[in-house]
Amino acid sequence: MRYSKLFGKTVRNAPKDAVLESHKLLFRAGFIRDLSAGRYLLTPLGFKVFEKIIKIIDEEMQTIGGQRVSSPTLHPLELWQATHRDVAFGEGLMRVKDRRGAWFAIGATAEAVMTEFVKKFSPSWRDLPFVIYQFSQKFRDELRARGGLVRVREFLMKDSYSFAADEESSLKCYWDHFHAYEKIAERLGIKVIPVEADSGALGGDFCHEFITPCDFGEDTILTCECGYRANKEKAEFVRENINLDEEEKPLEIVSQPEWVESMDDNVKHYNLPKSRFLKNVVYKTAKGKIIIAVIRGDLEVNEVKLTKVVNEGELIPATDEDLIKMETKPGWVHCWGHQALYIGDLSLQTVKNFIGGQKEKTTDCVNVNYGRDFTCEVLADITEAHEGYFCGKCRKGKLKEIRGIEFGHVFKYDDFYSKAMRATFTDKNGKEKFLQMGAYGIGIERAMAIIVEAHRDEKGIIWPKSVAPYQVHLVNLNPKSEIRNPKLNADEVYEKLQASGIEVLYDDREEVSAGEKFVDADLIGIPVRLVVSERNGDKIEYKGRDKKESELLDLEGVVERLKA
Amino acid sequence: MRYSKLFGKTVRNAPKDAVLESHKLLFRAGFIRDLSAGRYLLTPLGFKVFEKIIKIIDEEMQTIGGQRVSSPTLHPLELWQATHRDVAFGEGLMRVKDRRGAWFAIGATAEAVMTEFVKKFSPSWRDLPFVIYQFSQKFRDELRARGGLVRVREFLMKDSYSFAADEESSLKCYWDHFHAYEKIAERLGIKVIPVEADSGALGGDFCHEFITPCDFGEDTILTCECGYRANKEKAEFVRENINLDEEEKPLEIVSQPEWVESMDDNVKHYNLPKSRFLKNVVYKTAKGKIIIAVIRGDLEVNEVKLTKVVNEGELIPATDEDLIKMETKPGWVHCWGHQALYIGDLSLQTVKNFIGGQKEKTTDCVNVNYGRDFTCEVLADITEAHEGYFCGKCRKGKLKEIRGIEFGHVFKYDDFYSKAMRATFTDKNGKEKFLQMGAYGIGIERAMAIIVEAHRDEKGIIWPKSVAPYQVHLVNLNPKSEIRNPKLNADEVYEKLQASGIEVLYDDREEVSAGEKFVDADLIGIPVRLVVSERNGDKIEYKGRDKKESELLDLEGVVERLKA
Question: Among the residues of B12-156, which ranges form H helices?
Fold first, then answer.
């Protein structure tokens, strides 16, 4: 490709609101533009990288026996409603009504569609297991779209779905994907850490996220020396016993100054650590139902864990107005007695004689004991894990926090979708059984951003060979015909390289200085730069983008090196 | 691929509402399923064909220098509004509001998006011309979705866009595409006739449709021996003079029985041919504005032509209620005097002393002459062409009608979009000028249907080699291990063919009879069928899907034949 004719050239400045280096570099080097927040256009350079990422993923999906299919973007809303995924996705799922009044979800994922697809062929045990996959545009109406290609509102996703007759073969599909994802990451030049994760709005109970460590990532994972790795939404940890050897004392209503409202006020007033207090955090569901999370004072509620326990879709933090409607206010919420669903954290069982729980204008109570004085409808793990907590698996090591970006996600659903949608197969005895399902996703835009985060320097991108838009960046330093290098014609070098099957980006611009061409080559980041100039005579300067030194080779030498 | 493990097997019956053979066959053979009306799922077999069609189109786009890009599906609605395309597309364009209240169009085509894309890089004359293209999902909220893959609500489209500095280089891009489309059709095994067409809601003034002749097609084209070819919405023809030598007589109000309302009533009452009467056809715009089309009694209004002349978006036929509001009724509409925009057809100039135009309870008028007694705001070609009319180009030949399906469409827009969107480039003298634009589209689902319409027999599909899902369909007639052919192991044949780089669909099913396997092979329509059976010993039966006779070859002979 002649750079002079390439649509989408480099620019000096990145957008002012760009935070991640991958966003700045991909913009400046001319790979992407935003059409609106979170919706990106890919230039010809950007699409070249995209194609290579897609090809690698496609090959690995074929290797594990995946069969490529395609499905519509607009899904009949009933398919989402069958498993209440419309509620679980909340406002993140876009909906649209057609001119005949039928409602559609704009595909955010395709579990239900694929389940419906499979139903249409009434499979028998002979057909199972199989994996179908597609590359298709997905839509998530994110409240905030930030970080360039990392969190977007519309993106291409490789999503695959496995259908199996039993647990064993379903798990085989799961681990096939797990290993394929490791392989894909390796081929893309990305380091990933598979971690146990929460499946969130997608349903199911067993899943892994593949996280790329990155200081600016949105995800936090917790790791232990014992090998335990989980994301913050899933990580289990040991809640230390605070004072379980203490004897239970009788509950007492005590007088308390009105100013004691927050946890800090309490610590000050009683001169005791936060862990001795009860804390309430109030949420509401989309339908307005009040949820009160009760937790030990030194711990934080993790909304994802809580959402999963409540299982009624998105939770929204209650506002002061909500509290007024409950006839209370911040700091005054009671651990019992409100018209609400109470969810208690496991930490309520680690303290004797809690303080708090019934704050009024001039009183509160002390010596509150869970089980004796109050109980919650559900007692579960709703606490956010943090660095330094004891690992929930080995119960000895201390958890460490790593920030990162989610590269891929694998889910084992069992019959979560097939039961709700009556998706069955006929077994050897002619009996109808529910299909065992798994789903597996990689976002392509995000993969591109992750690659750039991992492969760059202060001058620009350094593409791994496997996904570079071109193999070589050929720079002609004397493109004007009147001063053309008499010993080596760059146009001919371009033609010959292409004839050898090498993908060449050829900077043939006449109006641009040598310095600018070098700056652009470093910014665009193609792995090898070749320079044809009068100074080099009949030799070509060969330089790896990641190397400091260059070499002079003849054309044959260049081709040989590139083909090696 | 082992057929036993393929997702999406054959079935006996087509859906009851299927009309086109391509729909029935693609369904029965297991290439497609509908998720909802007009929105299709592609099975692995269907996607294989899709991939091959895409590859052929992609190669031809590369050959003419196209640069592949990608753009979001949701377009900020403002981009559509800039050229009033939102109005022109009417309800066919789906719209959706995001959670922050921003309106988006769900991409029906991408002219405005691509214009915006190009603007973001402020091109100069040095960058021009260039062609960018994509394969992306398009959405049209069709009132009726029928004919399987021919008229769908959602489809993959190859859409390309050319941007040029002047008329000449813009036209070069146009004809490059024109010839590329002929080449693509040829490679897909499709016969196409390029015809002059109307650009409809897309804007612009110069375009060609590529029509595949098909008796069940939705489009009608008119051809003349002189070479003129146009679709019904565009075709120009000569309006014969009816009685221009007659002298203009004075307009007269005459009494007329109340029952004389329709054209047939008039013919009966006056005993004169339809061509002597005035006819009014009433429409309204989306905003409720009344349009009255005035035309010679023997001609029909073509809504597309009329819509284009009115240029206020979709036109809807007026209802009886609309006429009541106008204080008239069917057959009583006047050729003048209503609160309406009057559009007259050129045929008003071919008759002297028209009858009609002012029907009241007991009167009408005669000797009405256009120009003298009434005029319309616009006089234009709004008549539907028909077989037998005189060609508008040579004015001698008679037009012939052919039915067909639109395979592709090329548009020359000049500065229709760039002017409205202020999309400019810097010319050699540093002056800002409007970009000259063209756009070019091929729908992939429809291409697949057209191929099947053209390549089939009573037994099933007969795929052209270029797009067949697999090159050979290998049938094992003795798959059960206990009765396996001792001289030739079909599993090994399968492996060896694959190792030779041949794409094989291998029917290894144990539970299916030989007869059923043959029926399935004919239905699926892979170009070559190979049979391994005990009867054939160490030879393989080789039969072309389009041939009656088979041959016995050894494996080497088969490979040689396939590689030829």
Answer: 21-28, 44-63, 77-81, 85-89, 111-119
